[in-house]
Amino acid sequence: MHVRYGHSGRQREDDSMTSYEEKRYEALYREEKEKYIRLAGELAALEEKNSLMKWRLGRLEGSRLFNFLRSFSRKGFVRPLTDPAGDESLKAYNENIELFKEPYPLWIRDKEREAFEKYSGLDEAEEADTDIMWLEAEDKDCVDERAYKIAAKYFETHPEADIWYADEDMVTEEGERCFPWFKQEPYPESLLGCYYYGSMTAFRREAFAEEEIKDIYKNKKKLYELVLKKSFTEDGFRKTGHTPLVLYHGKISNEQKKLYALDTGIAPCVFGYEPEYDGIKAAYEKAGKSGNLSIVIPSKDHPAMLARCLKSLTDTVKLSDIELIIVDNGSDEKNRKAYEELFERLRKNKHIGNIEYLHKEAEFNFARMCNRGAKRARGEYILFLNDDTYFTDASVLKILMEQAAIEGIGAVGAKLLYPDGRLQHAGISNLETGPAHKLCGIGGDEHPYFNFAMTKMNMIGVTAACLMIKNSRFTGVGGFDESFRVAYNDVDLCMRLIEAGYRNVQRNDVSLIHDESVSRGNDLLDTEKWNRLAEERERLYDKHRQYAGRDPYYPQHLRKDDPRFAAQAYNRQESRDYRDREYEEFKGNIALRKCHSLKLNIDECGIQKKFRRDEEESLLIKGWAYMEGADNARYAKRLILSKDKDMRAYDLEGQYLPELKYVFPDEKNILLSGFSLRPDKDSLSEGAWYIAVEFKDKETGSVYYAESEKTLSIGQ
User: Fold this and answer.
1) pLDDT digits (tens, 9 = 90+) for 262-284
2) Which of 41, 155, 414, 688 has its CA at a distance of 20 to 30 angstroms from the CA of residue 24?
């Protein structure tokens, strides 16, 4: 109801519009109605035209001309045949899938002969006195026949060694070699973790009685005890020989292979880590005497997180006289007060002898904060601990301390897990790309690479997120280098400990939880932090030149640029140069045979990022290419670089990319669509090189091309 007022000021009711408003709305209605009638007529005309075009197209598709020209689009692109690959092409594709999805077959094909020439110590025709030793094995039928001569030659040339071992792999019921075990060099704590000499061991005759050795693999406890007794002497750890060649091929059932491939089962050749061997190892572990402990924890503006860490410590750890030293580089007033209230409550705990809270406004420098806390530490041992860690096992500190107490031990670390149970840290390996955490992110209940994440072992470094060390040894090497403000301060400390004659130990048989970098964030997700990380890594290698891209504790045949434990193998890279007439022919072909269905994506192209200053510059072209709507097993592939009547063609074996089946679920045989190419930089002249791929149909000989919008720039 409208309420209106007349000139007299009296209120009146009006239930209808004025005559002017009625006329205006009526005109608008007529206008819209005429528009809809006109559009309906146009739509009917379009539908009639569409029906006529469909009829004409049907006649055209049945014509001989259409069948002749059907592979050409109106833009000059060609279309591939969609028929399935032939039997031979499909067989080759499936064989390559097996070859490329696991690098070990590539290593066997491309690297094993080279390794034999380098490490066997003898020529193929050279003889060796095998009477110098006994060789025992889990199954002598699995021993490579060359092992006898190689072991004998080693004993001849290394009179100080009485025991020898080599690398090994497994062979399926079908004869497929798989699961290589490239082994660490002999180190004391690693040998006490498990019998990683493996399924075959040779013994010098003059050092052992025959009755000690004969059929010793039938009694693994006896074998382990004998090797420990011979290795740990009053003069120290006795040298053992290791030849990094695969000389034992253990048998594995298809069911065992399936379990181990999923990392849900432990490889059958690994033993000595089980509790039943503890009694044998106890006589040689020589656990040191524990003492007073100072725990140094850097923490800023995270009182709740620190409270969780300390509560887990007091709830699970039963050690007396623990000293807590909290180093704060500038918490605000509110958080500082929260810290002080927390420490006041903790002082009532009888297991905590002293709490110091060192608050000082300063730029973040993890190394300086740790050193500041260590200077106030009165304990015989220091545990450097992140505030984003917490304990779930009461035995952790006692085990770490007893390990750190042993003569000759430097830094000791524990396995760290993410809150969801995934592995975060199992020791530091020094790879070509820099110090790294191997296997980061795998499931905590998995048993990867022959129980790697389950036992104690010697490693080049452990993380300062949880690092136990004897106070006198820490101060003896000068503490943390404060020039490494954020990263690599722990790696530098561990390297200096090795240089001073100590051994670092990673205890993967004990663990705690770690929310990595909660307080700082992730260095890899920030450009500024990444650049700072690269600068600190460069300074680390300037300081320790002998470790630039080298790790004496890391098996040499494993990849040094991959977080997995995988064989160091790459796809073959064969190239051919084309010039003048052949180049002109190629340019003509590529113009006529561009294929709209051939998809090319270049992810990386150019100078590969250097991880060290002394590293040679190298080119990298990385990406993937596939034929849309066709069977990709049909094609042989090449990557082509062209510039100024000069051309390079590189055969592409294919890189296994299992994720593509999820990205392109409707495409057929697409898993080998990746490529990673490293062209010789010196063979390419300066300028911009165009990038293309060539797919040749192995069934028909037809050739198809696709060009990338990206170019490879040399010297620009």
Assistant:
1) 555 566 678 988 999 999 998 88
2) 41
Are residues 520 and 582 both part of a single domain? Answer: no
Residue at 599 is within a domain: yes
- Show which of 266, 285, 304 is a domain's final residue: 285
The tokens describing 306, both together, are: 């620190």
Which helix (DSSP H) or strand (DSSP E) does residue 600 occupy? strand 598-607
334-340 LR contacts (CB < 8 Å, sep 24+): 335/300, 335/301, 335/302, 335/303, 338/303, 338/304, 339/299, 339/303, 339/306
DSSP notation for 436-479: EETTTTS-TT--HHHHGGGSEEE-SB--TTEEEEEHHHHHHTTS
Length reported for the chain: 716
**116 has a pLDDT exceeding 70:** yes
**61 burial class (0-12, 13-18, 19+ CB within 10 angstroms)?**
exposed
Tell me the residue type at 522: N
Higher pLDDT: 117 or 8? It is 117
- Is 28 exposed, middle or buried (CB count within 10 Å of its CB: 0-12, 13-18, 19+)? exposed
Lowest mean pLDDT across 55-64, 78-87, 98-107, 389-398: 55-64
pLDDT value at residue 146: 93
Structural domain includes residue 124:
yes
**pTM reported for the whole predicted model:** 0.74
Looking up residue 611, the CATH number of its domain turns out to be 2.60.40
- Does residue 538 sit in the same domain as residue 583? no
Measured from the Cβ of residue 567, the count of other Cβ atoms closer than 10 Å reads 22
pLDDT surpassing 70 at residue 36: no
Angstrom distance (rounded) from CA 224 to CA 231: 10
What is the average per-residue pLDDT within 232-256? 91
302 and 257 together in one domain: no
Determine, yes or no, domain membership for 86: no
CB 335 within 8 A of CB 377: no
Mean of pLDDT values over 139-167: 95
The DSSP element (H or E) to which 353 belongs, if any, is strand 352-359
Q: Alpha-carbon distance 523 to 437, whole Å? A: 14
Name the band, by pLDDT with cuts 50, 70 and 90, for residue 256.
confident
Q: Within this chain, do residues 360 and 502 fall inside the same structural domain, yes or no?
A: yes
> Tokens 């097993």 map to which residue?
633
- Residue 45's domain comprises 18-70
On whether the CB atoms of residues 615 and 627 are closer than 8 A, the answer is no
| Lowest-confidence segment of 328-337, 498-507, 660-669, 683-692 by average pLDDT | 660-669
Same domain, 327 and 272: no
pLDDT score, position 518: 42
**pLDDT at residue 328 in the model:** 96
Tokens of 551: 């790790």
The two three-digit tokens of residue 588, written as one number:
């003509």
Q: Would you place residue 349 in the very low, low, confident or very high pLDDT band (cuts 50, 70, 90)?
A: confident
What is the DSSP code (8-state) at residue 681?
A: G
Contact 606, 642 (CB under 8 A): no
Do 342 and 197 belong together in one domain?
no
Asked if residue 454 and residue 602 are part of one domain, the reply reads: no
The total number of structural domains in the chain stands at 4
- The C-alpha atoms of residue 232 and residue 701 are separated, in whole angstroms, by 66
Instruction: Report the distance separating Cα 196 and Cα 185, nearest Å.
Output: 10
285, 319, 344 - which closes a domain: 285
Question: Does 122 map to a domain?
Answer: yes
Residue 501: Cβ within 10 Å count: 8
Looking at the DSSP assignment, which residues form a beta bridge with residue 280? Answer: none
Which comes out higher in pLDDT, residue 299 or 234? Answer: 299
Average pLDDT, whole number, for the chain? 82
238 and 377 in a common domain: no
Task: Report the alpha-carbon distance of residue 512 to residue 423 in Å, rounded.
Answer: 10
Return d(Cα 279, Cα 432) in angstroms, integer. Answer: 39
